[in-house]
Amino acid sequence: MSDHYSPVVEHLADPETAREEGRRKMDWALQHMPILSELRESFLADRPLEGEVIAMAMHVEAKTANLVELLADGGAEVAITGCNPLSTHDDVSAALNAHENITSYAVRGVDDEAYYDAMHAVVAHDPTITVDDGMDMVKLVHEEYPELIDSIVGGAEETTTGVHRLRAMDADGELRYPVFAVNDTPMKRLFDNVHGTGESSLATIAMTTNLSFAGKNVVVGGYGYCGKGVAKKAAGQNANVIVTEVEPRRALEAHMEGYDVLPMDEAAAEGDVFITTTGNRDVITKEHFEVMKDGVLLANAGHFDVEVNLEDLDELAVDRFEAREGVEAYEMPDGRELNVIAEGRLVNLAAPIALGHPVEVMDQSFGIQAVCVRELVENGDDYEAGVHDVPDDLDREVAEIKLAAEGVEYDSLSAEQREYMDSWEHGT
Amino acid sequence: MSDHYSPVVEHLADPETAREEGRRKMDWALQHMPILSELRESFLADRPLEGEVIAMAMHVEAKTANLVELLADGGAEVAITGCNPLSTHDDVSAALNAHENITSYAVRGVDDEAYYDAMHAVVAHDPTITVDDGMDMVKLVHEEYPELIDSIVGGAEETTTGVHRLRAMDADGELRYPVFAVNDTPMKRLFDNVHGTGESSLATIAMTTNLSFAGKNVVVGGYGYCGKGVAKKAAGQNANVIVTEVEPRRALEAHMEGYDVLPMDEAAAEGDVFITTTGNRDVITKEHFEVMKDGVLLANAGHFDVEVNLEDLDELAVDRFEAREGVEAYEMPDGRELNVIAEGRLVNLAAPIALGHPVEVMDQSFGIQAVCVRELVENGDDYEAGVHDVPDDLDREVAEIKLAAEGVEYDSLSAEQREYMDSWEHGT
Amino acid sequence: MSDHYSPVVEHLADPETAREEGRRKMDWALQHMPILSELRESFLADRPLEGEVIAMAMHVEAKTANLVELLADGGAEVAITGCNPLSTHDDVSAALNAHENITSYAVRGVDDEAYYDAMHAVVAHDPTITVDDGMDMVKLVHEEYPELIDSIVGGAEETTTGVHRLRAMDADGELRYPVFAVNDTPMKRLFDNVHGTGESSLATIAMTTNLSFAGKNVVVGGYGYCGKGVAKKAAGQNANVIVTEVEPRRALEAHMEGYDVLPMDEAAAEGDVFITTTGNRDVITKEHFEVMKDGVLLANAGHFDVEVNLEDLDELAVDRFEAREGVEAYEMPDGRELNVIAEGRLVNLAAPIALGHPVEVMDQSFGIQAVCVRELVENGDDYEAGVHDVPDDLDREVAEIKLAAEGVEYDSLSAEQREYMDSWEHGT
Amino acid sequence: MSDHYSPVVEHLADPETAREEGRRKMDWALQHMPILSELRESFLADRPLEGEVIAMAMHVEAKTANLVELLADGGAEVAITGCNPLSTHDDVSAALNAHENITSYAVRGVDDEAYYDAMHAVVAHDPTITVDDGMDMVKLVHEEYPELIDSIVGGAEETTTGVHRLRAMDADGELRYPVFAVNDTPMKRLFDNVHGTGESSLATIAMTTNLSFAGKNVVVGGYGYCGKGVAKKAAGQNANVIVTEVEPRRALEAHMEGYDVLPMDEAAAEGDVFITTTGNRDVITKEHFEVMKDGVLLANAGHFDVEVNLEDLDELAVDRFEAREGVEAYEMPDGRELNVIAEGRLVNLAAPIALGHPVEVMDQSFGIQAVCVRELVENGDDYEAGVHDVPDDLDREVAEIKLAAEGVEYDSLSAEQREYMDSWEHGT
């Protein structure tokens, strides 16, 4: 048992019980994380991260905790805090602190000051690597601790939104160390965004509201990977899916898939359930609230709570009350009630019953994180400052581990086939 | 506020707060129950059930409570208790007791003695009508209160299993009043069983385990209406569905749908998740547990907790522990852990986070219940003792109410079309 | 080689080559008809139809021909003609005539007089059993050959429409021998109607037009079994499905499936492709043509060519021309062109490239026909005059044969399970 | 009417009737090609291709013909021949020759010598631009007419296979002018490959065989865009899809979609239908044929006829015969018959009833071709020799035209939203 400083332990009435509970949650997750399980064996054997200090700002819950522990088992000292004040599980935070190489500063529900204090405390460990879910750690280091940058070999970023903002920063010439865009790998996009966000968002909404999707008009704001997942899984529950988009090729793609594509101005009056996935702000605003049906559900599956404009909604409302745990009803002057789930925050993380992404998809995503961190240690000098795609062979390595763990066999190219693919001399 | 006896009120520390909470739950449900809302208006105006006494044994939660209140608003005196010791919401039970025509005896988690006492207390109201979810009330009256039968105009039964047992009783010549087989209506089977059981079982499993269905082998035991729903919704979440059946036409139907059809002896080794829906016992037994993969999930979506044979499982296990809230892990001698969800009871009702069927499908099902009760009062003499299908026009009436409430318009036959359908003289 | 009268042989330039070609078509079909293959072995061995005369009016093509030959191999004398002047394959008709127990009167494209002459010629064989696809043979016998009725043991009817008309006839007390409603079996409805009509109608339309369904609004007229099949398969090709219905429960079922449900008055302006499946007349009429988009496709998958009102369309049109083989374009005064496929006749039979239902589904359907005919011979006296459902054990027998042929294994009930299902004493 | 040399006119008995028939086919296609229709208006007005000579080797049928005519209407002189000896429609070839700016050398079914003569005849026009479907024209110019390269501004390539080979050529430093990889655009891959190949391959197989996909094991070789389309559409017809792959991420993607993933060695014994889409050779070979079921169907949806190894099959076979038009049966020593569709050539082009890709998807693909050719004329100097992705704005332009033509409206970013997306300063 480590004796390092541990704010969550200070905070908890019965830290020992919390640790056990946190550990039980981590064990459940690990049972369904074959990739991390496999990597742990090699990390424990090879200690590839020996001597590194990793600063993390991620959702502190059971699945992430297994990544944190894997990195620590690989030899690194890890300091972590949450990337969202409401997503921390204190028991998991406590369980992490029990590992001698890990300090978790995350405490659920802290105020802004404590939230940022924790960030600073993490950076005080003098990291050589940053791992982010929303680029908060990269931003803090660049803005307030530029002196650390020289000793940082690189970083890894988990989310679409974070990568988007990192690319903007990079385009401005202000990103001063290499960061792997974990979000942009085929593995991450297809499995985490499509399957993970899709399934968990819908299950969270269903279990928060006790409502069904069959026969409902489900308006999906945005048809990126998350939007595709939400749309596909909602259609798989027999919803009638309506997509809104701003990019014509994505709009066309949704149209060709058989979904209705409408501007939000029209979709607003049709929808029974609205789920935003754009990564942008003001997807649903005042003029939309004004035409919505009584009893609609409003939820956000994008990173920040700006997609559904709650200020507009609050301004329109004559009353608001908790209609159900996790559901705030806004009563309109004409008596309609619009129901906002999880305060418009990322629904599969912020709803009271939310559990985040499914374990298996985080296993894939975190498997890539782990091999990216290993790559930074082993070959960090090969990468210039800026956003980098995850090297193809790392992404492929993780897929191979997963398939082997699931017992899925597949073919390999014969020498003749490889030659055929490489040649261009062959005629018709 | 009524002053009638109310066991749940005795039982609760703060009955007033509970009543408010129960009422809030009922209001949420009613917002999404357009059929009951519509019927309530006519029931309040016409009081069609005036003078009747209705004995109910159903799951006492928010949705059912709106049916109970509708029947009371129609003029009946209603006495109710739970049909499952674990499905009662005490706050809803308390809220029901606030209605002057309603007495609820349901209290969550009571022991067997208290459970059956509550049944007897309900019957002590001298019912003229019974409404069941599993035929417990019909059974009790027939076995222990035969003297009441003469004054009972009839009953209504909600479930597949209950109807099945009533038909057996009827075949034995022992059913002594008419009972509507609400379960067997097209409305009930397609919407409640397929959509309701399907969606809520999967969402409950997902939110109890934090696992995903994508790429999983989901073994569905039984391909009746519930099984079809579970299979369809699981495939809609990108599961690889395996069906087991004993009836060749259903097996063939599943095969033609594109699912794998296997005997359970073979499916046992393939499955990642098992969901039983047969209404029968011993669907999964010792020889199946012996070949299952490590970490499988076992859940039941059929009425009783006999589908997964937990005695067999317990006998095999060297250890068992709560792996997660709502999940009991059974450790096999070879180290495999088999995870049983909600103790093998009806998963969408008995899991700790379970909410039962979605509100909208219960609205349809309870709408039929309500018009069936009305029919018994108005035309009960037309029905002989025995199980009766719900008259077609009642079922149709409820569909019409629902479509109108959803704003769905449809066509009607012209005189010429009606004539065409009726004629057989028309040649090629 | 038989020397009986054979109109198609008279008609053909090279009957021998035609016979070979017809036989090759029959062989291809038989390779994919495991049920008929299996039954043929037992029919040849047992000769259960010895001494019977079977009068048939069915589509004379390769699949039906294998049923005809099976009945003949079972010992019956079979006389057959077409049930649609355009669906006969002359080469198959010729190949059938080569069997000593079979006389086929079917010739493609004959005029009305020759068509009805062929019907009379079939009846002249003094049938003891009739097998129909549209009840033409039953009708002819009742109207013009009542003297034959006493020696007829019964009949079998293939189609929804035929059964509908037989039931009307039965209700009028005019059906004078027993007829099996083959169409109404679960096997027939689910496999033939849903899968057969669904897949073959869409493939025929695709290959007649070279158009795609992805992103198209496909309006399905009617949501019976055929409509469900067309809707499901169209959605499976990424069409946006719109359903029209006159029955509220079916309308609700389509709505809950996630389809748009609209009156045809509104659907008419939305659709890109219209497929009628109602079995009724005037599903699409003048007011609908007036609001349709330029370039729409109109097709019928119901039995008769009355669903799309072509008289109305012709009246509106300023010009019409063959836009493509199998497609007649009707030009509206405003320049829009509405494209009618296969003259509004049953599209999967009447289009120039049409092949009828897929072989495998006809195998199931004809398997039931064959065991129904066997049942009439063996137990015909048990059935009163009127329409009869196919006895459950026959339907089940065919499913068992099919599953065995496909190598699909399934479970059977244990004695304990059977007892459990039969008992009603079991408590909660 | 032009009087230029026209081999197909020489070849045809009645060229005038052929021209009319070809024109009718082109008109049908154009009615469903809104993108080309829209572009034609601007091309006729602006004549952007004036003075260019375009050499094309593509499938000469109605859809392509509308692209050819569009390019000619844009001012170019176009010379074309087929890229496959069997895909030419002589009537369309004749109709094209009627345009004064077009010379078509394509004649169906010519021998190798005539086929290559036609290629040379096209190059003899001294092209400034090449447009290929399989890089034959690029190859011919580079190998035999290097003197033309200096005056060629660039090319465009339609297919996956062609692009693959061009990239190999480029990597070898041997590609001497810029070529747009039309195949690699999102528009082309998603719509043409997924929807086009998927729907048309399955419809062609269904209508060639009269068989159904419901309940069949459909083995899809390769899970690239074409494979995804075939798998998705086959599942949408209720097939049980089995995927084979050599790339672990694609294999995992298919697995997570819910499909079975197997090595071909195992899939071979399971499949009822095999469809290869890999672009590689020897996907199905001797050891696979040896274990296949009796009656299986073998088809290829990849570019060349090397995916199913017919030499191996022929070697194993004791007999072969035409089982049905477009289907060659190979009889194995043990009596099994394996059915090869369309000689293992690209099934949706080479089967006797094949129509190629659906009109609408070719409209999208050819729309990109047209704007790429326009781009080469307008900005060809901006592109170095080598393979180039289609510039994003061209791809987007075509999507916008399509959405406008379909009447699909979508949203646009507000200034605030654009700013939000561009900024990285925003905190949590």
UniProtKB/TrEMBL annotation, chains A, B, C, D:
Pathway: Amino-acid biosynthesis; L-homocysteine biosynthesis; L-homocysteine from S-adenosyl-L-homocysteine: step 1/1. It catalyses: S-adenosyl-L-homocysteine + H2O = L-homocysteine + adenosine. Its main location: cytoplasm. Gene3D superfamilies: Adenosylhomocysteinase-like, NAD(P)-binding Rossmann-like Domain. It holds the Pfam family AdoHcyase. PANTHER family: ADENOSYLHOMOCYSTEINASE (PTHR23420). May play a key role in the regulation of the intracellular concentration of adenosylhomocysteine. This is Adenosylhomocysteinase. The gene is ahcY.
